């Protein structure tokens, strides 16, 4: 038990016994806590020659210090309570490319409008890099494009998506060249699944940006397999877009030991909606 709180209670009740009752402990325990203070500061707290509890000069100083500590603690609790509903501060979100470029902006806009004092730093990278950032506490939470089997990572499904293959309209498609994401990207796994479904073994050109991949397909340089969520309405004007029987998910990830404060909880709830 906090010996300073014990001292305050002893003075308040003017009795070791009543202090023990109020603190739900024993009288010997109260005596030990007072003795701990005396040994710590090498002083006597009470004048035991008096029939009543009377503080020595050093005891008075300790009591004033104990009261100051209690006052500061109460102020802290009040501040924490008054700000418990305020979402403010800074946190870092890591996201894989497709979700970060095409889906996350809507969520961040909602957060900005509802919680203008919350500042979010966004780091966009491939899924493996996001996971590495989570493990080394460089980001608070992450969004990746593949399920993670790792005891250090907690993983929750956000939404389902599907893969499509695309090529330029009005020309015979070049199916010998396919633009894909780099290894380590969550999208790459599903692109390879799509190629298996199409029974194709084209030359692969790795590009770590979905927008550029779309541009290459739109220019007629080959075809690509991408997430349907990366398709904009204007893409239908220039691209043939065909759905594959390949489903995928986006996942919210965090370290299993990450402390979830009100800010992080708010961001998670917004992303998961």
From TrEMBL:
Transmembrane regions: none
Sorted alphabetically, which keywords does the UniProt record give?
A: DNA-binding, Transcription, Transcription regulation
Return the PROSITE patterns for the record: HTH_LYSR
Which residues are in the HTH lysR-type domain? 1-56
> What Pfam families does the database record attribute to this sequence?
HTH_1, LysR_substrate
InterPro entries, sorted = LysR_HTH_N, LysR_subst-bd, WH-like_DNA-bd_sf, WH_DNA-bd_sf
Could you say which protein family the record assigns here? Belongs to the LysR transcriptional regulatory family.
This chain's protein is named LysR family transcriptional regulator
Write down the species: Staphylococcus borealis
Lineage, uppermost ranks: Bacteria, Bacillati, Bacillota, Bacilli, Bacillales
